[in-house]
Each structure stands twice: as C-alpha cells, then as structure tokens.
Amino acid sequence: MRRRARGGDAVTFDFAPMVDVVLLLLIFFFLTSSLAPRDRALPLSLPGSSTSVQETSSLPVVSLDTEGKVYLNGEATTLARLAGQLRPLLDASNKAVGLRADERGQYGAVMKVMDEIRRAGGEKLALATRATP
C-alpha cells in the first residue's frame, strides 16, 4: 500500500537551486584563490627585524629559497633569465624591487640575485623581513 501526501501529489525535491548555490560557491573560491599573492605562498623563513614596516605597494618581488631557487612574483625562474623578465616590470614600479630571501640561504646567492636586479635596472631594493618584538 503506497502512501501519498494529503493533497494526493507525490512529494518531490528540486535539486536545481542547490546546484546553483554550489556552482556560485565554486566560482567564488576559484576567483579568490587566484587573487592571492603567489610569492607569499613560498615557505621562506624571513630574517627578523625590530624596525620592519608593513608593505604598502605592489612591487615586483624576487624570492630566493634555501636551495638557491629563484622566483619572480611567485613563478619559478632562473638567475640567467631574471634580468630579462624583470625589466618590463621595473618601468611600472618606479625602478623598485622587493627581495624575499630565506635567512638560512647562502649570502653569495643573495648577492648574485641583487646583481641581476641591478643589471635589469632596479635602483631601489626593499628587503623583506618578519617583525620581531
């Protein structure tokens, strides 16, 4: 014996509104994840500084990890290609570049990256640090 709702119609569940909400959530998360700065996603241990200030501008950022791998705005590159890739970005940034280097990295590797930044035309260098009390 089959039971029916009081009105005589079978009860149905409409999935269309739920699918719309799920798709909107997916679009939201895709857009917000692509807007996050990629250079901050690199696992670097920045040196501490009691006089560090908050970054306020959007400079091109060169990152250097402990293994000597070079990244420009979060994208892997090589030391040989760094100057060529950095030149077009310097015109828009008033010749300023940010440098994020792991504190456990080699000093010589940092100097090579700084030389390439200067060769590309970089005149101002902002060193990234973490705030310490």
UniProtKB/TrEMBL annotation:
It comes from Deinococcus koreensis. It is found in: Cell membrane. Keywords: Cell membrane, Membrane, Protein transport, Transmembrane, Transmembrane helix, Transport. One of its GO terms (biological process) is protein transport. This is Biopolymer transporter ExbD. The keyword Endoplasmic reticulum does not apply. The keyword Nucleus does not apply. It is a single-pass membrane protein; Single-pass type II membrane protein. GO terms for cellular component: plasma membrane.
